[in-house]
Amino acid sequence: MVYNRDAEIADTFEWIRCREDRIVLAAHNGHVQRWPVVLPGMGPATPMGMHLAARPAGAPRSQPLMKRRVM
Q: How many angstroms separate the CA atoms of 15 and 28, rounded?
C-alpha cells in the first residue's frame, strides 16, 4: 500500500543515521515535507518528513540541493 512507503523510507533512513555521521537523501518535496499529503480521491497520507519529525531524535536538517526560480 502506498501509505506504508514513506514509513519504510523513514525506517531505512533512521537505520542508516544510527550507523553513519552524514547522509545525503534525495527525495521529492512530497516525501520530505512535515505536513500531511492530500491527493485527489485519497485520504491524507503521512510523508517521510512527518514520520521522522515524530521520532525522539526529531527530523533531520534538510538542505535543498536545487532551487527553482518561480516567474
A: 20
